[in-house]
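hi support,

uploading two proteins for the ticket. first:
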Amino acid sequence: MAIRVLLVDDQPLLRTGFRMILEAEQDIAVVGEAGDGLQALDQVRALQPDVVLMDIRMPRMDGVEATRQISGPGRDGPAKVLVLTTFDLDEYVVEALRAGASGFLLKDAPANELVQAIRVVASGEAMLAPSITRRLLDKYATHLPSGDEPVPDTLHTLTDREVEVLKLVARGLSNAEIAADLFVSETTVKTHVGHVLNKLGLRDRVQAAVYAYESGLVRPGAQ
């Protein structure tokens, strides 16, 4: 079945451009558009999209709050949120990820990257390259705890190896790099990451990275 996509941006011209790109793909169907966060919430309820391509700065309700109401804590709907941003708005990306977004994409990304991002997010994965995860979290370390705060109780549900894997995820390593670092197979790493997500109630490895920083398990800038 085609991936159902909702386009949310306050600029009609951009929505038209995204629609043209996505509708050229056989496995993607644009089911609706919205010009602000409030419209997006209505459209999500009415259309039940698989992926919401979400702008950040919009009138009435911004993309962060809309994301929180679509994919935030306690929300179990099927829609995944892929945030649109530009480098000069990166300060909003961490907040969007905290709100439940499954990743972000630059507005000037090539068409093939947009299409691939939609597919990746629809499959339940996170659309953030490990290196970008690390760069964003380190760059906006002022938004995060210093690492001196008490470790949350939920962290104690993890085994020592799962904590080790979580640290490496937060520091931007891919599954292959983690496997090489720990001298295990990629399949084993994927299993550990899955256990971490299930035990901590997290959606994907991006939220796991944010959790690791917010809990103080990993300090911003640490190697």
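and the second one:
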Amino acid sequence: MERAAVFDVDGTLVDTNHLHVTTWWEAFRQAGHRVPMHAVHRAVGLASGDLVARLLGEDRDKDRDAELSAAHKALYGQYFDRLPALPGAGELLRRLAGDGWTVVLATSAGGAELGALRRAIDADDAITATASADDVSAGKPAPEPVEHALELAGVPAERAVFVGDTVWDMRAGSRAGVRCVGVLCGGLPRADLEEAGAEAVYADPADLLASLGGSPLA
């Protein structure tokens, strides 16, 4: 039977979370908002609109949300030519594909950003499809991104594993009914990932690859 390995990208396969923190912080600063970096870090992984709402609240000037998102996108775009893959990212995807897993990415990135992330991972030969936040009505922690990834893979939830680095990933995967694996390379504590639904937690893709035989992806 087919089985699917669904992966978040930012902070899971590519070392970008702190770039997102810095560029969101600068976008907020330019717009006159003082938002602590630790609060931005906790919100990374949400879709742009949800991130802004979480950090600025419902009483913000919502007409400026698009301006904030555009500023972040422009600032982050300066790094597209040098985004660093996390250790073992490409090797892990190719190993899973070779073992018969259908590998699908589930990310809020799209367009040029997604292209830059895929170039960093350098494992297009192992990736069957990509589920973007643009393809669904709600981003993580809603289950839709993971459910869409399963549709693309043609695999039921009970035959899938979702790997991510944030509580939003774990909640989305749990709500979609898949087994969840967390990685610490996004910067969040193990306890937070486990509380949000991670069945197992590894340091990074290289650690997961080295521990594959005893993992939910065995």
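thanks. also noticed: Residues 1 and 17 are 35 Å apart (CA to CA).
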